[in-house]
Amino acid sequence: MKPIEKYDKLRGGYYTPSEIADFIIRWANPAPESSVLEPSCGDGSFLAALRKNCRNADVLGVELDPDEAAKAEEIGYRIIKGDFFSYYDQNVEGKKTFDVIVGNPPFIRYQNFDEKYRAVAFELMKEHGFHPNRLTNIWLPFLLLSCEALGNEGKIGMVIPAELFQVDYAAEARKYLSSHFDRLTLVTFRKLVFNDIQQEVVLLLGEKSSAEKGIRVVELEGLDELIRIGCSCLDRAEMKKLDHSTDKWVKYYLTNEELAVLGKLNADERISDAWELFEVNVGLVSGENDFFLSNWKNVMERSLEEDVSPIISRSEQVKGVLLSEDEYLQLREKGKKVSIFTPGDRPVEELSESARAYIVWGESKGYHNNYKCRIRKRWYHVPMSWKADAFLIRQANLYPKMILNSAAALVTDTLHKVRFKEGVDGKAVVSAFLNTYTLALSETLGRSYGGGVLTFEPGEMRRMRIPMRGADKLDIQKIDRLQREGKYEEILSYTDKVLLYDNLQLSEKEVMLLHSIWNKMRNRRLMRKQSN
């Protein structure tokens, strides 16, 4: 899998380490004379593993690039020189099935996916009830159409981006896979297994017919452990019941006991859904921060005091859970870029002399030609909707948090903005947000890549749940002080007692399980950051 330059970027195929190909072939264990398909064979990593481990299988490879196809042919199997989607459409759809399908499908983003191949792939996906869009990566139609090509007793083993676990564009695939296979196994790695790329992968092993049904996740350190343990590593994982939904699969890292307590609370009507409490949306996009965002010294030098508004431009500018006017002024005095140019949506001749001069300076730098600027009616006017009552951290390290915006500051898209519903006590929501249940849930709703940061889109934040019973008894000043001191364990001890023990009447074991969920999921993503 490879999002890389020139030919490699267009083909998108990082070739599979022989250890992974051998592992998948040994797991699939094709019977003599069984039919095996490799839909994106490259130079033949899986074909070589098949030749070594099961010489009598009826193997077919498909490869678009003629040079790579020629290398694959040398292994001794029949190779179709062309694109998989056309081959599938003309020779597989409604005509034949395979016993085993293995491979490492290309990893190519929509914009790099040749339109003539993309059109065929997307049309086939639509025929099977899927809804591809501009976020769809090429590995997805490879995987889904390969699954459709399996016989009733078939097995599939593929190297897939770990995005399968969590991205929205793979939501349909998660639901489909959970319904299409009796048993799914996902082998994941704490360390990257492809040289030279920051691409986390999983080994997806699917069985259409299995006496033992469900899903299991096996987490290994890296290739060395896979080589040492081999297929016996699969026996160490606890089988979980498959949830036939579009939910993210990161939850399957949890034990059945942990899943049970999380599921119980997710269905508890005493706990509020975030969408019932507040609206959430992205912060503003200036189009050119070097022009629109300024420190106070620059504002005064250019006499723009009447043409700027307060703004929070970086998440590290908000240390606690409260942003007061005094704290905002302290940020300003420290030289932080917390002022945004807001001359108004008016013709330039109606603006102040200082604002006009600043706009002329910006145009001399070419800022008005930036895409976001040039598509506006007036390039110097940043579109804004409602002002935020609070902010939500969009990219969290240890944990997400909400900050009450008592300074009436605007916010860039480095954070999300929050507007509380009518009658909702914002202080209570901000205070209650930091509890072990909500933080545990956040790890299953957000998405994390190789860098270890937990990222949330507004839609994921709307799915958060917050126990609000008793939240009015929480002291937000105390929580703010502890947050600034980095004493998050003391915050959780305080909020859990009020919200989880006293009001939801959870047992000590249940709260400890929530701690286990949060620690396990958080530490897993942070460890990936360290190992990468």
Which CATH class of the largest domain?
Answer: Alpha Beta
Query: Which second-level CATH architecture of the largest domain applies?
Result: 3-Layer(aba) Sandwich
> Which ranges are low-confidence, i.e. pLDDT below 50, for 5 or more consecutive residues?
1-11
Number of domains: 3
Count of helical segments?
A: 22
Largest sheet: 8 strands, mixed
- Gyration radius over CA: 27 Å
| CATH homologous superfamily label of the largest domain | Vaccinia Virus protein VP39
* Cα-to-Cα separation, first versus last residue: 17 Å
Residue-averaged pLDDT:
92
**What name does the CATH topology of the largest domain carry?**
Rossmann fold
Oligomer: single chain
Across the major sheet, the strand order is 3-2-1-4-5-7-6-8
Structural class: alpha/beta
Q: Based on DSSP secondary structure assignment, what is the total number of beta strands?
A: 22
Describe the structure in your own words.
This protein is 39% helix and 18% strand. It is an alpha/beta fold. The chain folds into 3 domains: 6-253, Rossmann fold, CATH 3.40.50; 256-283 and 389-409 and 421-532, no CATH class; 285-383, no CATH class. Strand 20 (447-448) and strand 21 form a beta hairpin. The chain is globular and about 80 Å long.
Task: Please give the structural blueprint.
Elements: H1 6-11, H2 18-28, E1 35-38, H3 45-53, E2 58-63, H4 66-73, E3 78-81, H5 84-92, E4 98-103, H6 115-127, H7 139-148, E5 150-161, H8 171-180, E6 183-189, E7 201-207, E8 214-220, H9 223-229, H10 256-266, E9 272-273, H11 274-277, E10 278-282, H12 289-292, E11 293-294, H13 296-301, E12 308-312, E13 322-323, H14 325-333, E14 339-341, H15 353-364, H16 371-374, E15 390-393, E16 395-396, E17 402-405, E18 410-411, E19 415-420, H17 426-433, H18 436-445, E20 447-448, E21 454-455, H19 458-462, E22 465-466, H20 476-484, H21 488-503, H22 508-531
Parallel strand pairs: 1-2, 1-4, 2-3, 4-5, 6-8, 12-18, 13-17
Antiparallel strand pairs: 5-7, 6-7, 9-22, 10-19, 11-14, 12-14, 15-17, 15-19, 16-21, 20-21
Helix pairs in contact: 2-3, 6-7, 10-22, 18-22
